[in-house]
Amino acid sequence: MFDALLLTQEDKHTFAQVSQITEADLPEGEVLVEVAYSSLNYKDGLAVTGAGKIIRQFPMVPGIDFAGVVRESTDARYQVGDQVILTGWGVGENHWGGMAQKARVNADWLVLMPQGCDAAKAMMIGTAGLTAMLCVQALQQAGITPQSGDILVTGASGGVGSVAVTLLANAGYRVVACSGRVEKNAPLLKELGAAEVIERSELEQDAKPLEAQRWAGVVDTVGNKILAKALAQMQYGGAAAICGLAGGFALPTTVMPFILRGVSLLGIDSVSCPFEKRKAAWEAVIKALPAHFYQQACQQISLAEIPDFANKIIQGQVTGRVLVKL
């Protein structure tokens, strides 16, 4: 028997409880992993609280990412004792996930632990850090350099945003962080490297088709009106890497930024990111993140604390990354 956070549903209400399960309860897969750490992401918060239609089959073990040690494997790529990471692939949504002391998954979903990393550090990065790295790489591939101008990061106090601020600042970019709780979060965001922190309310008003040019690049985790406003303020030839919808999935904008300023909209998906691209992004983020990020922007909780923190994360009350020790 081992511990797992098990989600059940009654009368359309989701209930989360730490339960004891067995290996026989786990779904099929080629690799059995003893999970050392998971993490709490915004999507996990929606799943655990039932605030979002993330999970459609119950019971379910949530947790969209985890890191641990291989205990059984029928796939030649992974041997007993290998340290591995899993992020995405619908794990924690339609396949039992990382908020349990063991997980059985498909071998194709795993990545070997990069050199210089361990399970705790991997989950301090997690899905959020992987996504942030893919955003930064996309901006760089679009030709956005530190000399291009300011980079806006929306939802900067969240998991993806805090890593993006750190990565960009460490790469020499001037970062403007947008947060809904500037008074509380500005000190940390500046420690992570933000040159300036602005209130979310500055970007929440309805956008004109085009506004004064401010941003060479954008990493957006919010969507909706905030992304529309940022696009209207993009510099000529700028690029926006978009990866989230914390503010909604609508995009109330026009074609004007794209056809009159040559702005590029770069969609970032980490869930089904191909293996080689995923592996390269993991290796890059391990090398790029400075040691102070792990000390300043991460906190650790237990399995039993997840429901409380899940409510906080969807209410915007959690800053940085939340590590779950299994």
What is the topology?
Elements: E1 2-10, E2 13-21, E3 31-40, H1 42-49, E4 65-73, E5 83-87, E6 102-105, E7 110-112, H2 119-141, E8 151-153, H3 159-170, E9 175-179, H4 182-192, E10 196-199, E11 215-220, H5 224-232, E12 234-242, H6 256-260, E13 264-267, H7 275-288, H8 291-296, E14 298-301, H9 306-314, E15 321-325
Parallel strand pairs: 8-9, 8-11, 9-10, 11-12, 12-13, 14-15
Antiparallel strand pairs: 1-2, 3-4, 3-6, 3-15, 4-5, 5-7
Summarize the structure.
The protein is an alpha/beta fold and 326 residues long. It is built from nine helices and 15 strands. Helix content is 30%, strand content 27%.
Low-confidence stretches: none
DSSP E strands, number = 15
Q: Supply the helix-strand structural class.
A: alpha/beta
- Provide the β-strand percentage band: 25-35%
Gross morphology is globular
Number of helices: 9
Distance between the termini: 14 Å
Rg, please? 20 Å
Q: Mean pLDDT, rounded to whole units? A: 95
Biggest sheet record: 7 strands, mixed
The run of helices and strands is: EEEHEEEEHEHEHEEHEHEHHEHE
Helical content stands at 25-40%
Overview of the molecule:
The chain is built from 9 helices and 15 strands. It is of the alpha/beta class. Strands 3, 4, 5, 6, 7, 14 and 15 form a 7-stranded mixed β-sheet that branches. It has a 6-stranded parallel β-sheet with strand order 10-9-8-11-12-13. A hairpin with a 2-residue loop joins β1 (2-10) and β2. α1 (42-49) packs across α9 (306-314) and α2 packs across α3. The longest helix is centred in the middle third of the chain and has 23 residues, at 119-141. The chain is globular and about 60 Å long.
